[in-house]
């Protein structure tokens, strides 16, 4: 499988952007790595990289070859996983990309539950915005995506979609904190800490905020929910997330969540998806089954 090692060299150079940095990650010398890349180019009869003072950049031919490389690496990972699956899934690996809103409670709980049954399976989880999530799937850098308000494409195969309510976050000492739910108009009476444009919740809220520009008091915009929760400690500000991100940890950290009346803000789609045409590894397929089952139960419980 020497050719697969060469594929890994190409992939490493693309990710690192230079021969030197890629060589460091591969634990070989830069000169040896450069010779391997030149060997591939000689066999293909064309350059796959443009060499610049600041690093390496793929040519048009290189883009085509990189897609071929990543498909073969993914196929090998799947074959290895299927072989392990014959042994009862004692080993395996799951790579996924997810929205930040799922990082605090939902995904950690799902991964812990899966590893209790399959302790030999490891995970790579990339937290990304909804546009980057699709790119990550298409680059074969993740097998699964679980994303809020995703940018859909014909390349993405939807495994399940559920609707999630938008919630208001605030300090447990906020004047509205004792309410069972709130209206958006009530939230606008207080300083707002908004998700930035890279997050799906902001796209949903934007039309409502535009109609109330004169009333909204926007004090901060951020792509970090951790920062948002920190800014809410002034006991006056209000932030926004989706329902699946509302966890017991909020209460432990003195932050509470309240549903927003659905007459004011519609629900947000949350999907679990894979790249169309890609066969998942055994471990990823089983984890996808667990995710879809859990999400389906959540949807039925609403």
From TrEMBL:
Keywords: DNA-binding, Transcription, Transcription regulation. Residues 1-59 form the HTH lysR-type domain. SUPFAM superfamilies: Periplasmic binding protein-like II (SSF53850), Winged helix' DNA-binding domain (SSF46785). It comes from the Bacteria. InterPro entries: HTH-type_LysR_regulators (IPR050950), LysR_HTH_N (IPR000847), LysR_subst-bd (IPR005119), WH-like_DNA-bd_sf (IPR036388), WH_DNA-bd_sf (IPR036390). Gene3D superfamilies: 3.40.190.290, Winged helix-like DNA-binding domain superfamily/Winged helix DNA-binding domain. Belongs to the LysR transcriptional regulatory family. This is LysR family transcriptional regulator.
């Amino acid at each position: 499988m020497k050719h697969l090692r060469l594929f890994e060299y190409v992939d490493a150079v693309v990710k690192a952007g230079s021969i030197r940095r890629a060589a460091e990650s591969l634990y070989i010398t830069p000169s040896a790595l450069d010779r391997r890349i030149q060997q591939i180019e000689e066999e293909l009869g064309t350059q796959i990289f443009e060499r610049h003072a600041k690093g390496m950049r793929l040519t048009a031919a290189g883009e085509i070859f990189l897609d071929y490389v990543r498909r073969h690496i993914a196929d090998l990972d799947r074959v290895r996983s299927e072989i392990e699956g014959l042994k009862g899934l004692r080993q395996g690996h799951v790579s996924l990309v997810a929205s930040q809103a799922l990082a605090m409670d939902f995904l950690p709980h799902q991964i812990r539950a899966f590893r209790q049954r399959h302790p030999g399976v490891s995970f790579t989880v990339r937290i990304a915005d909804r546009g980057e999530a699709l790119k990550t799937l298409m680059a074969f850098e993740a097998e699964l995506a679980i994303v809020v308000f995703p940018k859909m494409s014909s390349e993405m195969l939807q495994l399940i979609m559920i609707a999630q309510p938008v919630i208001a976050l605030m300090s447990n000492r906020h004047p509205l904190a004792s309410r069972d739910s709130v209206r958006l108009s009530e939230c606008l009476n207080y300083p707002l800490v908004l998700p930035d444009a890279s997050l799906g919740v902001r796209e949903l809220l934007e039309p409502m905020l535009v109609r109330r520009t004169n009333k909204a008091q926007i004090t901060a915009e951020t792509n970090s929910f951790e920062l948002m929760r920190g800014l809410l400690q002034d006991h006056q500000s209000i932030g926004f997330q989706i329902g699946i991100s509302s966890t017991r940890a909020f209460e432990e950290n003195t932050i509470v969540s309240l549903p927003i009346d659905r007459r004011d803000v519609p629900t947000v789609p949350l999907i679990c998806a894979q790249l169309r045409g890609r066969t998942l590894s055994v471990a990823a397929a089983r984890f996808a089954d667990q995710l879809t089952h859990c999400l389906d139960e959540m949807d039925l419980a609403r």
